[in-house]
Amino acid sequence: MSLIKIDGGHLLEGEVKISGAKNSVVALIPAAILCDEDVSLVNVPSISDVSALEEILCYLNVNVKRVNDEMKIVSSEMINRPIPESLASKLRASYYFMGALLGKGHKVDIYFPGGCTIGKRPIDLHLKGFRELGATITDMDNHFIIEATELKGAKIYLDVASVGATINIMLAAVKAKGKTIIENAAKEPEIINVATLLNSMGGKVKGAGTYVIEITGVDYLHSALHEVIPDRIEAGTYLIMGALLGNPLKISNIIPSHIESLIYKLREAGVDILIGDDYLVVRKNDNGYLPIDIKTAVYPGYPTDLQQPIIPFLTQCNGISKLEETIYENRFMNIPDTQKMNANIIIKDNRYAFVKGKTQLVGTKVSATDLRGGISLLICGLIADGETIIDNIKYILRGYDDIINKLQRIGAKIEIIDSE
Ligand code: EPU
What we know:
Blueprint: E1 2-7, E2 12-17, H1 22-32, E3 38-42, H2 48-59, E4 63-67, E5 70-74, H3 85-88, H4 96-105, E6 107-111, H5 124-132, E7 136-139, E8 143-147, E9 155-157, H6 163-173, E10 179-183, H7 189-200, E11 204-206, E12 212-216, E13 224-227, H8 232-245, E14 246-252, H9 260-269, E15 272-275, E16 279-283, E17 293-295, H10 311-314, E18 319-324, H11 335-340, E19 344-348, E20 352-357, E21 365-367, H12 371-383, E22 387-391, H13 394-397, H14 403-409, E23 413-418
Parallel strand pairs: 2-14, 3-13, 9-10, 17-18, 21-22
Antiparallel strand pairs: 1-22, 1-23, 3-5, 4-5, 6-8, 7-8, 10-12, 11-12, 14-16, 15-16, 18-20, 19-20
């Protein structure tokens, strides 16, 4: 078993280049099978969620060629077979094969998706959307058969502005007959990125990035070359590291406006951040930081995916910071291990975290329980006194491209070791 070993307290200096966004690419890859020709994606990150999707593509007889950060997907010989639980449960985003296969072949046989257990994470809104497009759904204890003789455009209202449901409905609707309108759609940048791919294949998607998305179905989708947007959550993660240890740290290949909510929260605490066109420069402030209050919200609010990663920063603010998690019911699994590292944190109703600082964290053995919780512990390790060992690192590798090398290059003392 592999572990991450960190020797804490080393400053981070130089430049870190951000990779393509996990939550975009995991939708773009399934979206590509809708294409009647071939699709090339560039800026594809090397993360295990992408490998898990590649496995599903191979299983469906889709031809995938990867060279560096480019992935070519040719689905002309695709076979629409039932996707077994062993493949679907490897990641959350396997659910995008529901919309993509339904749009392409009018039938999908698949299991409930996997992913981090950070809450109930139902998919009722995805299914409601498919039903309104004319599909019938047989649900046999988390094994779904979704089929339609014909998909017809419909007006679909989402009770919650869900990223997954918005994208899945777009994928199914792009080849449906007539016009689909998604109301109360999610507005995250990843949705715009997927809509842009669909449009560059000849799809007709309007309004992505707003509350109302209009999709007019087309019969044929042609080849396209498409770039994955930079990962705003990876960028935010390094920005937090830079606030704690930057000497200074430049974070490049990003779209700064995608993480404005984090930038302004960090500035409120007293972090010195310079905003460039496609980069940020952040420097540790030796005079200390003020406590801040954060409430997670849908985009452009403060992202839930940066809720756990900011906890190490809050332990270094002078006073009590308050965090409120509004999206998921179980996104504080990292807290017991953070407390083990000497953090002073009280959790209330699994919704609020009160973090009292400033405390010097101390290195110890900890365990990642989910992706963002794992990276949060890693950041704690970077600022802790002494050695931190993290196990269950598969969660971290699910979403952070080349993280060990990236951190070593900017001065962190971090490595992957084998447990005896
Ligand atoms: N929801 C429903 N019904 C649904 C779908 C969602 O009630 O049918 C609720 C969920 O219970 C949750 C909220 O809506 O309370 C948000 O869920 P959403 O569907 O937006 O989340 P998701 O699509 O499953 C994506 C990202 C998550 C990220 C969220 C919010 C992917 C594969 N995952 O999840 O990423 O937290 O959007 O931005 O894109 C991560 O990267 O660590 C991660 C968890």
